[in-house]
Automatic annotation (TrEMBL):
This is Molybdopterin-dependent oxidoreductase. It comes from Blastococcus goldschmidtiae. Residues 270-422 form the Oxidoreductase molybdopterin-binding domain. The chain crosses the membrane at residues 21-45, 82-101, 106-126, 132-154, 196-218. Gene3D superfamilies: 2.60.40.650, Oxidoreductase, molybdopterin-binding domain (3.90.420.10). Keywords: Membrane, Transmembrane, Transmembrane helix. Residues 513-533 are annotated as: Disordered. SUPFAM superfamilies: E set domains (SSF81296), Oxidoreductase molybdopterin-binding domain (SSF56524). InterPro entries: Ig_E-set, OxRdtase_Mopterin-bd_dom, OxRdtase_Mopterin-bd_sf.
Amino acid sequence: MTQSGERSPAQDIGPRAVRRSTGAVAGIAAVAAALGMAELVAGLIPDARSLVVSVGDAVIDSVPGWLERAAISTLGSADKPVLIGGVLVVSVLLGAALGVLARRRFAVAAAGFVAFAALGVVAALSDPRSQVFITLLVGVVGAAVGVAVLHLLLRVARSGQAADPACAPDETGAVAPRAGSTAVAAERPPVDRRRFLSLAGGTTALAVLAGVGGYLLAGRERLAEVRAAIRLPRPVRQAGPVPAGADLEVPGLTPLFTPNEEFYRIDTALRVPIVDPDEWQLEVRGMVDEPFTLTYAELMELPQIEADITLACVSNEVGGDLVGNARWQGVPLRALLDRAGLQEGATQLIGRSVDGFTAGFPVLTALDLEEAMVAVAMNGEPLPAEHGFPARLVVPGLYGYVSATKWLSAIELTDWDVDGYWIPRGWAKEGPIKTQARIDVPRSGRSVPAGRAVIAGVAWAPTRGIEGVEVRVDDGPWRDAELAERLDVDCWRQWFLPWDATPGRHVIAARATDGAGEVQTDERTPVAPDGASGYPIIEVRVED
């Protein structure tokens, strides 16, 4: 109130705006309750699918390839949280709109909640792992809770406005200022309005807890216990010991082996599939003489090998970090194909994931490379869930989009006309990893002190190995870097070059030469359709 008894501008908020905001808040809380309860139910019931994740998966499957590539290039491993966040933001906006609509047309708004749940159910049923009854149950529970919460909050809101001496319902049921009401009454929010806000806030908080609880209950804790109880068999062919000098241990340099929790993850799964190894099976089928199926226990009983292999994502930009090196253990692909017996015309091996993802590569690659395997372990432990537990394909020399099927459920032999998931989306049919070097030290854009310094990084060309790395500072000559001891042709190799850093701005480039004598090209190409090329180039400022 002003001293003259008139309203201040801050108090001059019309009942229409308040009513709209109240409806929007009620709708947002109702949508939160619907999503939270649906997530909790999905987490409590084995094999139930998250409706939110299912919608996100549907978005991934339907967007054009160029947009998918742009998202991976821009966001990297953050693309999945951003997409889930986008689905939630759209849900909140839809909830606000339905809440405003529900003030006068509750039945229409309730139908909107049902349609909202139906969208999630349809998306979830497109997953081959979904069960119709369970999926419908999740959707019905979510929709029912959302409608019930919306009805309750609007009833509380109406009772609060009816108790306000400054307001009264008109002939349509809408609340309008009562003739002769005073500003003093409008200043004092009624008890029921505070009750509405507390109820809406509490409902939203409980919904968030329910959603988080559903996520945590979705088999993760049990899977951790299962993985901890697994005892890996001793490989019949072990990887050799790491020679002295293979890991340079230069500060800031990528380690020889990438820790599992730091290994890059790029795939199409918004939520990591939680697969029970007791129920999991691997089919070997298609153009084979003797198709067969293995349980996890049977797979673990087969002779296994160990190999040090660098994997790279085709979306890795020059100098990027979507690449990692690990010691893998698993069953050779060649042994499984020999057991099945290949038919004439079986030229492609398609890996199929439990979530429907597919990737294909030439059968000759699986037969020629002893290290190509169905991997069950990574850096001495059972595969982490994020990297394909209980089993995945690991094939040296090929980008992951054509070879590295995680959560493997089937190996299918086909002809070359069958396309994996990424091929219709604009990526090349074959995906050999290009010879690449990366500069890790110094970091681009950083300042370094003048004097004796070091330039260091890693280089990789799986199946061919790295024979040399050269470095150029500004427009100077190419200089040979010192290479770490070789571990295996399939994994990357560290390198370094001593540098007398002089004050000023400097541009540093690097290039690698592989075991076949091929020098990394300076031709800049984008990641699509078959991987980026060009020299990694960084800029640093040297200060006195």
